[in-house]
């Protein structure tokens, strides 16, 4: 559709990759040696045929000599993959036969399948399929013979290929695994001749038992030589069903609106016409596209017609049921729904192609409008992009049978004009234009036209920007375009990859995001038939963009190539939605820093006043990796060697290229540190920009780590017997990391995976990211590996990866220790080896190692066991140190670390438990070898200590108390346990808990002799009073022991003993009280007399209980009762019948605490009423009246009543009460006119008070004055 302008940049750096023999050419190897370009071939070279259609301003402005060369490189297409050799040979053979016929019959056709990342090309009667992202495109290339019956008669042939992947869901990591490991996907191929409507089907091209293709031709297709346009297919799509492997469905449409359905299986193709003229009179079907599948129950697809978008539902059954869901009119007069009123003066509108985003919610439609310029009366074509939002739930089948009429699509934005005024084209050319969506920059589309051009359109800053794919040599037509599959993280974030295009002659190329942002230009505003149609403002805009770099062009995501591809390879570590724009001050500061550092390297001197100049330029203003110094440091360590571009595989690592490159970078980075110190910038950064300084030092850490990793890999490669390019888990992981970096940064696509890995030093975290995501694929044995047991192979792979991880982390920590004076204060900063991605990788390999160690428990090889132990030990140390660093940083920043701490403790305990079990196995095996079946406990202990020495240190550093306890317990070494308890804070508590669980109280108390405060605090927290008083006795803290024993005696139950709780008996309670009394007497602290009195009161209550229950079924060996429970027992129905119990309750109340008496006044009142019930007061009253008792007889009779005796016990002169008196709680007589409770008021409620009330009151008053009650001054005697 577009052709480049005559002004173009000479791109010497855009040399194609050399061929297998290392010969450099001016273009990728193609079979067109004898073909000479026609005279009309433009100087720029890409689109063929070369008829210019819409000249637009060149996308690449000329560079000044002072501008950096790499800026131009980043705005050019990047070579991705060459054609397989078989494709090139087929092209050459075909062109030698008849060049003109090749172009006329479209013998070359090709495309890229987005879902499988496979490319295809048809050369003559052969269909070639290969993975363009694979390391070796020749290895996975398949050539399929196209049946002659499918080719049809002479004339123009239009091909369409559908690829069906047989997995239910596509794993995000599939593409990387397939590219690096050469694993082929399970794919079915459907080839359709759109002209003849013939179809051929291969159910699975990658199986060894690949069947012959299934051919399906329409009736009479072979004989009919006069195929009409209406009889062709305009589009065909296919998708797997939820059924068996090899079964799928297809939908095709004809221009006249007829829909066809196909059911494919490995044996037959069922073709069925769905219905005639579904689109209505005069409509034409343009294209079909699947809506992204949300479930396995049904499928939906969109159909684009001349004026509508239709949605159809496919019900999967033995006979496919296809129903129309809804229809949306696009070319209509409705302001909200249609687009006719969006364009003034249009005569005809064509809907050219339709595409749907990955979520199925956004539809993009390419629109062409035939218009007429009223001023000049000239005709022109306007190309636009319409974006519609699907606002209904995907795959919702309506209840009604007919299509829905309500609004389901809404315009996301007004119609975006791509080309305002373009040359008028015929309908055939317009129908050949295709649209692709989903690539970078986000929201951009790529437009393919039949003349072989590819143009990226990106709506940015309120205007449309265009970038045309162009190479400086004849690359032929652009056959198709897709997006480069990204790594897992980007796919999860719904971020698309870079645009990739399939050319006719030059292989596959990628368009960097920065190329679109920087190289994109605005379309011309005026008719192209006039001179000077180029907008001069565009050139000024291009110059401004090129001058200030990509940072000032577009605020993009962190992962965006536009940021990564900058001259200093900048990337923010922290995540934010947009990258800060780099202004002029940043550029000036960076230029000053580069120049000053370069002068320092050459002369060894620092420019005078450099620090002030850097301050004035704002070099110290930004924090983190956006800081100028951090960017410079990163550019040093991430430099790509221009001379190192090769595909020799493992030979690169074995050579000195890697080592020399890394050593050179390390020396340059060290020089940079010296420069910072001498210029006094180091002090400024260390104090005010600690994040930036830490980033600079981490670059040195990662450099040192990779140097040691390269040494390790060289050793591993030298030990391998087979070709190192095909073995070694570390080699595979390096390939994966490099492949991931290349996919995420398309500028690196022309570099080798190993080169990218050893060059992108600052992205070393990706090593652990790939380890966590792809570990199972890496350690799983390949089919071509040496014939060993799968377990042995897996262990070997895991050992290799573990050694690499340990090497990286240990080298980092060693560098940090050696260069500690250079580091800023690390308070609140998280080092790179403590980042979540690193922890995830270490945990993945640690988990794999521990699982393999369990499976290898029966292995007799001692060296294998020792190696597993050593590697698990190293990984455990690295992982736990990473967690410790991250938690420490969170705490210092004041952030919540609870969740991370829980994860840390859980993984720590799991790893240390596995590590200790491994150590025990190794120690036992060593002992069996040395002891020669003779029992030697000293030798066993010595070996056990030696093997577990490293485990012991790790557990001590990270609080692995269970491991420390198990180790000491298995050794029966109390001395070691005591020493560890002195060194490890918290171990003493854990040891106390373990001893209590085991019921070893004697050992617990003996440990308390050495750790008195720890044990006292622990017993107090756990409320173990049964042990606490013993510890107080040992500490000679008798008052505390007495208090603890007293509380223990008053508790209803004894503490837990051997997992059971028991109720206290009377004898146990008395024993604790006796001990409490003895301890109080021994301590004799201030107020001990009151404490003894309290103990005596409790003893008396116990004695009363013994007397109360003596005649009952309860014996003294059973549970004891509290004072209140004892009173309630006496007030039961059975207790009220006993006269003696009615007095005993007052004894119990007397020895209760004052607070208890006060809070239970109601219970005391009930006791008085019960005491009144014990005598027959009406009989006494009647006798005194009828017999005429004297005062002496009346007094004698009242002295025998319970009320008299109770009054004498509670209120008499000799009454004994613990702390206070009964008058304080319930006075005997109330004051006149007072409503406060008293015994007199209580008795007034008695049923006999009306008859004998005066006798009752007389009895209690006389009892108060009598000495009937004899006080017991002696203390309670202890039981022997």
TrEMBL record:
Q: Which GO terms describe its cellular component?
A: nuclear pore outer ring
What InterPro entries does this protein's entry cite? Nucleoporin_Nup133/Nup155_C, Nucleoporin_Nup133/Nup155_N, Nup133-like, WD40/YVTN_repeat-like_dom_sf
What highest taxon heads this organism's lineage?
Answer: Eukaryota
- Provide the residue span(s) of the region labelled Disordered: 1-69, 561-583
Q: By its UniProt entry, which Pfam families does this protein fall under?
A: Nucleoporin_C, Nucleoporin_N
Keywords, A to Z, come to: mRNA transport, Nucleus, Protein transport, Translocation, Transport
* MF GO annotations: structural constituent of nuclear pore
Q: Where is the composition biased (Polar residues)?
A: 567-578
Residues in Nucleoporin Nup133/Nup155-like C-terminal domain copies: 991-1109
Localisation: Nucleus envelope
The Nucleoporin Nup133/Nup155-like N-terminal domain, residue ranges: 82-509
What is one Gene Ontology biological process annotated in the Swiss-Prot or TrEMBL record? Answer: transcription-dependent tethering of RNA polymerase II gene DNA at nuclear periphery
UniProt-listed PANTHER family: NUCLEAR PORE COMPLEX PROTEIN NUP133
Regarding protein family, the annotation reads:
Belongs to the nucleoporin Nup133 family.
Q: What is this protein called?
A: Nuclear pore complex protein NUP133
Organism, scientific name: Rhynchospora pubera
